[in-house]
């Protein structure tokens, strides 16, 4: 999934995203929440999409950006290729893939979701920490967040 994401970015003349262990952990936990609470939502288990990013220590930086893509499918609809194809053909997901981020984490969990067994639940967490502004001015707190979701077709 990282390879395909970075290929898409490089195809558009952008730098690739660096793998970030905290974002890998937060993405995996988010996929787990979706299965555990049987809730395909950016607010699975009643939590903000940034909940796990905060829990793993990624967000406490003074200035940050974060984005999330989620998707699920079974069989051929749950493969990396199928999920990524859905994301790049969705304006909101593509906006995250090509967004102003420098790091990525990817999570995959498999389980029962919405009555479907062996559902592959994918989460991409995107992030970046902003550089402090030049000079003696206090750092600006900037929180930009974007979330997008894809579920299998019919």
Question: How would you sum up this structure, described in words?
Answer:
- Helix content is 31%, strand content 29%.
- The chain is α/β, with parallel strands linked by helices and 154 residues long.
- A five-stranded mixed sheet has the order 1-3-4-2-5.
Describe the biggest sheet? 5 strands, mixed
Oligomer: single chain
Distance between the termini: 24 Å
Range of strand content: 25-35%
**Element-by-element helix/strand order:** HEHHEHHEEE
* Total count of helical runs of at least 4 residues: 5
Report the C-alpha radius of gyration, rounded.
Answer: 16 Å
Question: Outline, from the CA principal axes?
Answer: globular
- Considering DSSP H and I runs of 4 or more, what fraction of the residues is helical? 25-40%
How many β-strand stretches? 5
Supply the helix-strand structural class. alpha/beta
- Give unreliable regions as ranges: 133-144
Strand order of the largest sheet: 1-3-4-2-5
Average pLDDT, all residues = 89
């Amino acid at each position: 999934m990282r390879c395909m994401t970075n290929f898409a970015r490089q195809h558009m003349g952008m730098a690739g995203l660096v793998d970030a262990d905290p974002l890998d952990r937060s993405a995996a936990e988010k996929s787990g929440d979706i299965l555990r609470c049987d809730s395909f939502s950016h607010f699975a288990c009643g939590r903000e999409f940034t909940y796990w990013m905060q829990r793993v220590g990624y967000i406490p930086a003074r200035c940050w950006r974060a984005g999330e893509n989620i998707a699920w499918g079974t069989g051929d609809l749950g493969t990396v290729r199928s999920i990524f194809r859905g994301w790049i053909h969705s304006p909101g997901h593509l906006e995250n893939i090509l967004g102003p981020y420098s790091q990525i984490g990817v999570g995959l969990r498999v389980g029962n979701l919405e009555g479907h067994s062996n559902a592959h639940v994918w989460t991409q967490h995107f992030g970046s920490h902003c550089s402090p502004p030049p000079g003696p001015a206090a750092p600006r707190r900037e929180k930009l967040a974007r979330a997008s979701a894809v579920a299998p077709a019919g």
